Amino acid sequence: MAITPDTEITYLKGVGPGRAELLEAAGIKLVRDALWFFPFRYEDRRHPARIAELGRFLDTPVLLRGRVTSAVARVSPRKRMALFEAMLDDGSGTVKLIWFNQRFLGDQIKVGDRLAVYGAPRSTGMRALAIESPDWEKFEGSEDEEGAIVPIYSKIGNIPPKALRKIVDVALETLPQIEEPLPDDIRARLGVIDLHTAIRELHQPNELTPAFLASRSDAHLRMILQEFFMFQLALRVRRAREETRKKSRRIVITEELREEVKRILPFKLTTAQKRVLKEIADDLVAEAPMYRLLQGDVGSGKTIVALIAAILMIRNGHQVALLAPTEILVEQHYQRIRQLLDHSIVVAKATGSMAAGERRTLMSGLDTGYIQLVIGTHAILEERIRFKSLGLAIVDEQHRFGVEQRQKLFAKGEMTDILVMTATPIPRSLALAIYGDLELSVIDELPPGRQRIITKVRESHEVDRVYDFIDTQIDEGAQVYIVYPIIEESEKTNLKPLSQGFESMQQRFPNRRVAMMHGRMKADEKEETMQRFKRGEIDILVATTVIEVGIDVPNASLMLIVDADRFGLSQLHQLRGRVGRGERKSYCVLLHEPQVAPDAKDRLRAFERSKDGFEVAEADLQTRGPGEFLGTRQSGAMRFRMGQILRDYDLMEKARDLAIEVTNADLTRADAIARALLGVAVPAATARD
Ligand code: ADP
Ligand code: MG
């Protein structure tokens, strides 16, 4: 049987049912899938070093080839660790190889075996050299891979590397049957080489040039740009399909309306707010539905911008929904918006804790169009909530919501305009990657008069001085948050550390009014605590991360975060944003135990130094990777095989620009290209691990 790209991998020689299952689990079902299974590194076996000359390569990884002359498993006398030691002889000399805690090696490496090893030689004293934990591979008899550049693939189960390479080799024979999915003009615009050359080169490179090793060779660029372009094009096409169905509402922004907005505003908008507002207003007026991400650091004034957009929509006769992640935040938005608006706009709240009667009133108010602005939690998304004419949906703190919720909102109106706000300052590169189909507006300026929050990292034995500082601050009239690292995710979350913390604060500050708040309290209890804190009736609020999002109490100017190393940097930034919201000089103290890992300390120090959320977000992304940074829900959206969002940021932009152009020029063609790309490419189900 002739093998084609669509042959099932089981039918290859040397692939039995067992291996086929392992391969399939790794995303390799068809022969063509193996083509996209790229090596994660390469070994240049053309130039192994001579053991006699190893002294020149101290602490530098080097390739050696030789025969095993002894192999012993033993237990280290002092640390009682399992060791496996082998001597490697290449004719010029011998070197000791040592592995730790790998008991099974005794079964795999035997005297007489030929090995290629890769690792850094270290001096073990007295002119003796050893290589600790080298990568190794056996040569079973044949020497045909000597003198070649050998691709190293991620391990798949117990399939020997050599067998894996063989499978890829067979797959490469079918390469000519794979169609080039990029038309010539697009290839030219992207400036990339053809697919066949790229794939072959990635598996069997001719030279390991610096560009190649940096994943910037022509072959790499071809694959990265292809996957980025495919991603962007698919998003654009999907969006354009939505856009071709035009909004039927016409929004007009009259001089009168402008005047009304000016009257409502209690302050002058910053330049950034004005710019962003214009971008949004243009979207509202346009025929295509808006799909915009409004990004701005905590306290940059997103809410007021969103509110103005809401007024523009409402005065044109349509309804607006504002979706917030927590009831506290809903309440806060509600209060603030009530203060700003006169009674000519009907505003309502929608939360899960509404009584049945309230819910009925709400439902009929929305259905008849009497309620013009609804501010609510997920409760808004319920099936039975219907609008007369939902024109605009605003999603606050979007990182708490998923794409499905966005879609639900969209479906509640007729081509609803969508404005998504986030205070998690996603680096632009990442925003492009995940929200390639959203337009991006950034408020990159804080309202005037804001002061920088003084941030300090302290070890737990210094806590008494921190408490003294809290005392003097309260004497001066400040209010304080004390945050415990309890991230409330489920009913089972253990709140004990919080109540213990609360009790010890009551003891330490007997003359202060101390209260506790967490997500498991009843909505009205939370609300009452919050209101008391706002009115200044509580000095110290001991809380979980419930206060992370959006809480606004200008007089609260000191925050103590306990075991701060347990938080991600972006989350610390969110928390810190709760202080520094008023006139008072504000402080954030990060407490940690002295024994936390050095890199955890480094992270906290980086945070201590950082100026704004963008710096924090970049740092967070570097240390934790995009998946964790965004929470698991969204990470699936951006797994690329070869592209890396931060490193390849410029390529993502290039792909995006071209995708927009191609889609605008000819939607049918763009659709066809997107399909061809999706057809030929293999999604990164099992991206590098
Ligand atoms: P965000 O939602 O972006 O975190 P908010 O909209 O809550 O920020 O604004 C933070 C605070 O700054 C609020 O008290 C708001 O009234 C105030 N504010 C917003 N814009 C301005 C401005 N242009 N000038 C002065 N104060 C402003
Ligand atoms: Mg906000």
What does this structure look like?
This protein is an alpha/beta fold and about 700 residues long. The protein contains 24 helices and 22 strands. The strands form 4 sheets. Strands 6-7-4-3-2-5-8 form a 7-stranded mixed β-sheet, with no helix packed on it. Helix 6 packs across helix 8 and helix 23 (about 650-665) crosses helix 24. Residues about 630-635 and about 685-689 have low confidence and may be disordered. Adenosine-5'-diphosphate (ADP) binds near residues 301 and 552.
Give me the secondary-structure topology.
Layout: H1 17-25, H2 31-35, E1 41-44, E2 62-75, E3 82-89, E4 94-100, H3 105-108, E5 114-119, E6 121-123, E7 129-132, E8 135-139, E9 149-152, H4 161-173, H5 184-190, H6 195-203, H7 210-213, H8 218-244, H9 255-264, H10 271-285, E10 291-296, H11 302-315, E11 319-323, H12 327-340, E12 347-350, H13 356-368, E13 373-376, E14 390-395, H14 403-411, E15 417-422, H15 428-434, E16 439-443, E17 454-459, H16 463-475, E18 479-483, H17 496-508, E19 514-517, H18 523-534, E20 540-543, E21 556-561, H19 569-576, E22 587-592, H20 598-609, H21 613-630, H22 632-635, H23 649-665, H24 667-680
Parallel strand pairs: 4-7, 10-15, 10-16, 11-13, 11-14, 12-13, 14-15, 17-22, 18-20, 18-21, 19-20, 21-22
Antiparallel strand pairs: 1-9, 2-3, 2-5, 3-4, 5-8, 6-7
Helix pairs in contact: 6-8, 8-23, 8-24, 10-11, 15-23, 23-24
Bound molecules: adenosine-5'-diphosphate (ADP) and magnesium ion.
